[in-house]
Design brief:
The protein has seven helices and nine strands, in the order βααβββββαβαβααβα. The protein is α/β, with parallel strands linked by helices. The strands form two sheets. The chain has a seven-stranded mixed β-sheet. Strands 1-2 form a two-stranded parallel ribbon. β7, α4 and β8 form a beta-alpha-beta unit. α1 packs antiparallel against α2.
Length: about 200
Amino acid sequence: KEIEIDRILNSKLNDDWILQYETNFHSLVSTYNKELAESEISVIDVKKGEVYALGNGVNLKIIGVKNDSITANAINNSSMVFKIESKSKSVLFLGDLGVEGGKELLRTEPPGALKADYVQMAHHGQAGVGLEFYKAVDPDYALWPTPKWLWENSAQGQGPGTGNFQIPEVREWMDNELNVKKNYVAGLEGNLQID
């Protein structure tokens, strides 16, 4: 009750497209689209390259939107990608972007456009964008919206290292390929404030 939503920035997925490429999620996406349409909140279907002023010199730039041409992992690869920038820092949000969506942004964005001080790890750091994408971002810090069991690569409560997730490889990328200063993991540290 204390948060007032002024507007929703959205990259709307077409119901028929979802029905064709992500059948299992059609009901979820259809319900989401219906709820947005019926809400009394202003909904903006964003376009790549648009910039929104958030106040106090902070801007949000849209870097990636839905991509109907990528049908593998269709919903995740249509994640809205955006960068929030101030005079002192930048944070790149990848949502659940997959490998194919990451390759498309690498192909279409000019050099340096993806560079950010912080990066939100794609798809919880599991089966998201590839190493080359993260190299283009070249972050100092990695934000992992990742539960503890996934961070520890645990298979159904069997203990650390028992899973077959990609997490160990992606952690290796961050620590040794990109030398990030710190990994912030939601499942270990909870909510964080970046000053």
